[in-house]
Amino acid sequence: MIRIKVAVLISGRGSNLKALIDYAKNNQCNFDIKLVVSNKEDAKGLQLAKENNIKSLVINHKKYSTRREFEQEIDRNLTDNNCQLICLAGFMRILSEFFIDKWQGKIINIHPSLLPAFKGENAVKDAIDYGVKIAGCTTHLVDLEVDCGKILMQESVVVQENDDYESLAAKILEKEHQILPISLNNLCKGLSWL
Ligand code: GRF
Asked: Where are the domains of the chain?
């Protein structure tokens, strides 16, 4: 079976990266994680990559004077490592037109809300503050507009009376770990001509 070579971009903890790594251990999986890129040196996910013998590197956005130079460096490394698809797994930088155009239809993101509700960085807190009774997460293709783009999968969780930020975020994260690998795998199946 042909496996699509995927780059995973992270900024922190890397629990979604872990879910992807675990999923890729299955023989039937359609993707291989070729490269992990973090924009933060202290991202815990980098350790996970090491433990699993996955090549990783830090591209610190603060070292570049423009967003474009930062993105060109990511793009160059992805190309050098023959990556065919990008999975954003808690990558906390907004990507610009240059990068998104180049990787059109080949960038997937996970967001902790039922889009189009609660876009942005504080999705879980915003959902609690709003008082929704059903929350969840979404995988989607990355488009020029933040947290837009074609929806691939969604999972919902019931918000209980006693839920606070921590408990709800944990329940949503559990669902993220289920739908992100499946969404990526489905996308890779469709791209097996690459
Ligand atoms: C997740 O909640 C994801 O939805 C959001 O950032 C968080 C990343 O968590 N985009 P982790 O680094 O994968 O543990």
From this structure: 4-110+138-147+174-190
Q: How far is the CA of 15 from the centre of ligand 1 (A)?
A: 7
Catalytic residue among 61, 111, 140, 177: 111
Question: pLDDT tens, 56-79?
Answer: 999 999 999 999 999 999 999 999
How far, in Å, from the CA of 66 to the mean position of ligand 1? Answer: 25
The answer to whether residues 168 and 141 touch, using CB atoms and an 8 Å cutoff, is: no
Q: Is 177 labeled as catalytic in the residue annotation?
A: no
Mean pLDDT computed over every residue of the chain = 96
Whole-number Å distance between alpha carbons of 123 and 90 = 13
Tell me if residue 89 falls in helix, strand or coil.
coil
Pairing of strands 85-88, 55-58: unpaired
CATH label, 4-110+138-147+174-190, candidates 1.10.3720.10, 3.90.180.10, 1.10.10.10, 3.40.50.170: 3.40.50.170
Nearest-CA residue for ligand 1 atom 9 is 90
- Side chain identity at residue 169, one-letter code: A
